[in-house]
TrEMBL record:
Listed SUPFAM superfamilies: MetI-like (SSF161098)
Phylogenetic classification of the source organism: Bacteria, Bacillati, Actinomycetota, Actinomycetes, Pseudonocardiales
Source organism: Lentzea miocenica
Pfam family, one: BPD_transp_1
Protein name stated in the entry: Sugar ABC transporter permease
InterPro entries the record matches: ABC_transporter_permease, MetI-like, MetI-like_sf
Source superkingdom: Bacteria
């Protein structure tokens, strides 16, 4: 093992170690500090005061937190489910090389290139009373969350489509030829050939969707700032407003820990189940 490590070129070690050190300093260390700050009462100026689990106990009686959790769950199900189904459907539809298919792929991927803030500005114009709606759905507490969800999906579906297209390209065409010889229908080919072969891609898509769902912030903050009346509040937007508007960084860190636990729990549960099936 030592001899193998010694044969690694020094330049290659530098290319690996330097980004690792930068990542550790700017990402991992602040993340670890977040777990400590979640146990404190801190306004960002005075020294943090240790309060133990008081921040987590406070969440139980916090109505805005409960609303944010509910909205985040809705966002995770709809954003994750619709982007996965839509991305897979478009990938299956556009996987075959034929005339003009590249134009459709590029058109569906274009929203991914835009920043979420730019996407939000585009949809804000569409949502104005003079746009495609008579009245802005962003101003209605019953529709604000779903109105914000649409531009997020508009951007995410193209990204998921590309992931599934890469997975579909890796499937052996001989499997489809064998299924055709056996008289399999298009649906049987999908359920017995395509879907099982996409198992590894599904793990990647799930991880991307869960992480993107729980860290969704730009589009919501740009369009509604969690309003009206917290109707579109997510854990990410509540964490931001608590930290940088209310200056309750200890409580905001506790919210960040909750987001991390939710993302970690969902992904690990799926991966453990997938490994057991294998």
């Amino acid at each position: 093992m030592t001899r193998s490590f010694a044969r690694v070129p020094p330049v290659l070690l530098l290319f690996v170690l330097i980004p690792l050190l930068v990542e550790g300093f700017w990402v991992f260390w602040p993340a670890l500090q977040g777990f400590w700050l979640a146990l404190t009462n801190w306004d960002g100026v005075s020294p943090p005061r240790f309060v133990g689990g008081a921040n987590y106990a406070r969440m139980i009686g916090d109505p805005v937190f409960r609303t944010a959790v509910t909205n985040t769950a809705i966002w995770l199900v709809l954003f994750g489910g619709l982007s996965a189904v839509g991305g897979l459907g478009l990938a299956v539809l556009l996987q075959k090389e034929r005339r003009g298919v590249g134009v459709y792929r590029a058109a569906l991927f274009v929203p991914v290139v835009f920043s979420l803030v730019a996407t939000s500005l585009i949809w804000q114009v569409l949502y104005q009373p003079g746009g495609i709606f008579d009245s802005s759905p962003l101003a209605d507490p019953d529709t604000a969350l779903y109105a914000v969800l649409v531009p997020a999906l508009w951007r995410q579906v193209g990204y998921v489509m590309v992931l599934y297209l890469a997975g579909l390209k890796g499937i052996d065409p001989g499997l489809y030829e064998a299924a055709t010889l056996d008289g399999a229908t298009a649906w049987q080919k999908f359920t017995h050939v395509t879907w099982p072969q996409l198992r590894s891609v599904n793990s990647v898509v799930l991880s991307v969707i869960v992480i993107d769902s729980l860290r969704s912030f730009d589009v919501v903050w740009s369009m509604t700032r969690g309003g009206p009346y917290h109707s579109s509040e997510l854990l990410s937007t509540y964490m931001y407003s608590t930290a940088f508007q209310s200056l309750k960084l200890g409580y905001a860190s506790a919210l960040a820990v909750v987001i991390f636990v939710l993302a970690f729990g969902v992904i690990v549960t799926y991966l453990v189940r997938a490994f057991r099936e294998n």
